[in-house]
Amino acid sequence: MRAPRVLLLAAAAALALLLSPPADAQTLVRGTLLDAGGGGPIPRGTVVISANRGRWQRAVQTDSAGGFAFHDVSPGPYRMRASRVGYREVVGALALSADSVVELEVRLAAASVVLAPVTVVSRSTRDVSPVLRGYYARMQNGAGRFITREEIEARHPVRVTDMLRNIPNLNAAPQRMGRSGSSFSQGSSGDRCSVVFFVDGMRINEPGMFGARGRDHPIDDYVNAEEVEGIEVYRGESDTPAEFTTRWVQCGTIVIWTRRGFSERG
Known about the structure:
- By secondary structure, this protein is of the alpha+beta class.
- It folds into 2 domains: about 25-110, Immunoglobulins (Immunoglobulin-like, Sandwich), CATH 2.60.40; about 125-265, Beta Complex (Ferric Hydroxamate Uptake Protein, Chain A, domain 1), CATH 2.170.130.10.
- The chain has helices at about 1-20, 130-140, 150-155, and strands at about 25-35, 45-50, 55-60, 65-75, 75-85, 90-95, 100-110, 125, 145-150, 170, 185, 195, 195-200, 200-205, 230-235, 255-260, 265.
- It has a 5-stranded mixed beta sheet.
- A hairpin with a 2-residue loop joins strand 13 and strand 14 (about 200-205).
- The chain is rod-shaped.
- Mean pLDDT is about 80; it is low at about 1-20 and about 210-215.
């Protein structure tokens, strides 16, 4: 009795296979992403195919030739979206039938980019001597105190020393009879030493300790305020440039540049 039952079950299984519906044949979707203007391929673009109102989706990136492909896609309606930075996004509908190959050509138009406004400021060009070029370079990068021509013109000083009187730790000596201005020093009243002055790169005084002999004439005897292009003030050895270092560097250094060799054109 058992042998017929086995044969019956086998026959039933074979009948079930014959009566079951065939699986859906899959579809291949492939294409190329192109520039709408020049017609060239768009690499590294993104192509997305989605169904069921976006609940299912698959995304690929285009290759160097702009190509893309979706393998084994079931038949049905789909939505396709293509994008790339610098281009306008394209969206379209796609209906796929069973067991087919769909070839697509998608073109993107370049997107215009709105730039923020650019303000161009034109400044006059200065023709300066090599010495003054050094002054402007140190003013940009240096560690000293700089007095510019604009500051001088704004204050209208009678003497060069008038521009130096409000600088911290810089002391003006009392004006001497017959002199046009004061000497300057740093330090306490009991231990002062005179500041070294340079004019157009040349040292013009030989200071010593206060009360000692030395060639320490007021700077106003050498240059007037109207001639000055800029002033550099250094308080000691730590911030004084090497070209102005002297044996009295600890007393401070003041470098004055006149307007000779300076011109301005618009």
